[in-house]
Structure formats: structure tokens, C-alpha cells
Amino acid sequence: MIAPTSFFFDYGCHVRILEEARILQKLGHAVKIVTYPLGRNFSDLDIERTLAIPGRSNEVGPSRSKLLIDVLLAAKAFQAARRFKPHIIHAHLHEGALIGGALARLLRVPLVFDFQGSLTSEMVDHRFLAPRGWLFPMVHRAEGLIDRVPHAILTSSHNAARGLIQDFRVNPARVTVLPDGVNADTFSPIDDNAHSPAHPRVQELRVQLGIPLDRRVIIYIGLLDVYRGTDALLGAAARVLAAHDAHFVIIGFPNLDRYQARARALGIGDRVSFPGRIAYEDVPLWLALGEIAVEPKMSATEAAGKVLNYMGMGLPVVAFDLPVMREYLNELGVYAPVGDADAFAAQILALLRAPARARQIGAALRERARNVYAWARAGREIERVYENLLSQKNKD
Q1: Which residues pair with 378 in a beta bridge?
Q2: pTM, to two decimals
Q3: What does the pLDDT read at residue 198?
Q4: Rounded to whole angstroms, how far apart are CA atoms 336 and 295?
Q5: C-alpha distance from residue 221 to each of 123, 305, 386 (Å)
């Protein structure tokens, strides 16, 4: 696996990389992950890292310094491949697909591209690229060329698959929809886990955050930025808290100082907690604080695997009405028009005022998570793609 990111960093695509590697190992595959110099190691994973660049810190999204580190990643991938002798190159993100394409050609092995969102759209979301600027068509064209290099592409949603086929002219036969998954044994309501010591620990978290034991909690976990809907979420929170004695726990990074200041400016600083970044292993405990989960993401091309964790925990989910949310939540989602903070707040208030309905939705979403989004199922689908590619290679 080629992972051009600071793996592991407790968010987004990192979770997909982690869980895919683990389920493939469980199915009997040897997996080596080649990644950036910074990040967290795991004793059960074989990880090799590039050399560190002095002064380089973990970053979210595109940056000019990533060009240099990607050159180092390419060198490390070639070096590791000479020793590991892979049967498959499994590349994450577009930089990984570009590096993997050269490596796969050199080794004469198939390349699988784990597509987790449009590179062009991500650069626009991060304000690294102007949608009407002169560079946009060039980057869009380059993305299309990269997308057509792999022998197979795994996408996290049908919406992403349509974008590849329609916008970037990728052969549909090469595209397989592989939704993110959830470990429903780890991500489970406290009441469902008879051996869990989490209940008193949840109360400890409430005390730590200064949340009264009788106050109801709305929870979010993820990156904090404009394109992730954090501004819209705080706007909705102000409307909710004006009408109801609730509390928002907004977990994530970066831009903590900015959003804490924004909450204070809205007059809700005492009822919005920002714990910052937490370890992936601790996410179920923190999600157990919540009665309602929210996903204010407004990007139409990115996945949102955290929603599956919400579902595993049996939490009803309020989200903006995007195709990817419809895929995850189906008719069980509680939707607001994209970017409409007033409507978002109204949906949260409706659930707060109808707790029995909220619990019913949460229970149904947990069943959907268990039946549709188990990582074991995803692992078998990855294996099927691998086997088809290796079978075709042998024929050739």
C-alpha cells in the first residue's frame, strides 16, 4: 500500500487505510504500508516511512511542501518494493496512484487505486485552487490522466464512481464501489455491550467537559474547516441552544482557536466543547456522550466514513442532503438543504423534542451498519478485485 499522508493521524482516509490493511491481514494477506515520515505506528502493521524533512509538520490537505515529500515517498516505495516483491500495488489518493502507476509498470503487477475523492475538488475546497482560475483546467486534465492509469479503482460511494465515469472518462469496468466500513462490535451503544466499562467513563467525560448530567448532547467528530461545514454547524448550534438546554461536543482539528473564538462570539462558548484531536481507539467512548450526531460536510465528492461510526453507535444523524449521505443513511437520515444552518438546526431540535423517534432511528441505523457496512464484507470485495486482476495478468 502506498499512502501519501501522515498515516496514522486519526481522521478520514487514515481510518480507511487502517481498516483495509487490518482486514486484508486477517484474510491472510501480507500488507506493507509505505507512507510519510510523521504519523502513528501500530504494532500489528508493517509500516515503512520516508525520511523526515526538517520543519515539516502534519498538514491537512494540499501544500507545496508535499511535492518534495512525494518525491521521497516514491523513492521509498521503489526501495521497499524491491525487498517486498508485491503481487499488487494498492495506492491511496492521487499522489499514491501516480507513484503506484510507475512502480506497477516497472514490476509488471496490477495497480489498484483507492479513490477517496476528486483531487481537483479537494484543492478547491482547501482554497488551494480557484475554480475559475487558469490552473483549474490543467489540474482537472491531470487528474483525469491519473484516474485512467490504474487497472482497477475502488471508490467509497456510487456518487464518486459516477464522477469518475462521467467527468474523467474512466472505463466503468475498472470501477468498483467499496463503501467505508465499521466494526460494529467496537462501535456499539453502551447498553449493547454487557462487558463495557464505558458507562462510568462517559460520566467522567461529562464532568471533565463541565456538562451537567441531565443536559442532552449533540456530537460531531472530524476536521474543522469551512468546507467541512464547521461554520454552518456553529450557526446551527446557536439556533438550537437559543431554544433548548443542550450541549454540543465538537471533536477534531485543526483551527481550534478560530472556532472556539467563534463560539464565544455567538454567545454559546459555555455550551460548546472542543476537546481537540482524540485517538481513534477512544472514538467509541467519546461518541457515547452523544444522543444525536451531526455531519455538516458540504463537499459533494468526499466520503464521510465517520457517519458509519455514528450508525454503529446507534445515533440518529442530521446531515446536509448530499448523495453520499443518502448512500450511507438511506431513508433513515435526517436531512437539511446543503448549507442551510436554519434547517439544520430545525432538524436537530425536532429530534431533541422527539427522543423516542430519535432512538428508533438510531437503532435502525445500527442494524443497517451491521448488515451493509461490515469491514469483513469489504475485505472480501477487495480480494475479489485482486483475484480478477491477477487472473487477467496470468492470462496475458
Answers
A1: none
A2: 0.87
A3: 67
A4: 11
A5: 22, 11, 33
